[in-house]
């Protein structure tokens, strides 16, 4: 490649790297409104309510204990969202985001942490690569899983806190 071609292409590559990837906008779209936990859904909601709020076209698997959805933006960006139910109520939301590279996963992890810190009005705590925060109706963990599962994977897990109605504490048999 000659110098003239390089001088013309390199600013385009830089511009694409900074602004060309829509994964940040897709994350905001997927995360949904701040008053919900994920995609407009809140822990503790009924199985029926989650089905009503979710995109039926993205449904992969469904039964009374879970619903799994796949959101495909491109071959290098897609989301898998699984809703777990206990006694007909949403108990856990398990989100996996697959991206093209470890760098994109690192950037999206930072974006996810910042998004939920703003939405939940608190700073996330970090221990051994896991960002965590909680509020009365939910506990959230955000992890960049790329080093363990290959390039570009992050995981978000929303759980009902112990003692919450949708997540009863285990009882010993009497």
Whole-number count of domains: 1
From the helix content, strand content and strand pairing, which structural class follows?
alpha+beta
Radius of gyration based on Cα positions: 19 Å
User: How many individual β-strands?
Assistant: 8
Structure characteristics:
single chain; 174 residues; alpha+beta; eight-stranded antiparallel β-sheet; 5 helices; 8 strands; 33% helix; globular; disordered N terminus; disordered C terminus
Summary of the model, kept short:
This protein is α+β, with helices and mostly antiparallel strands. It contains five helices and eight strands; from the N terminus they run H-H-H-E-E-E-E-H-E-E-E-H-E.
What does it look like?
There is one protein chain. The chain is α+β, with helices and mostly antiparallel strands and 174 residues long. It has one domain. It contains 5 helices and 8 strands, in the order αααββββαβββαβ. It has an 8-stranded antiparallel sheet with strand order 1-2-3-4-8-7-6-5. The longest helix is centred in the middle third of the chain and has 19 residues. The radius of gyration is 19 Å and the shape is globular.
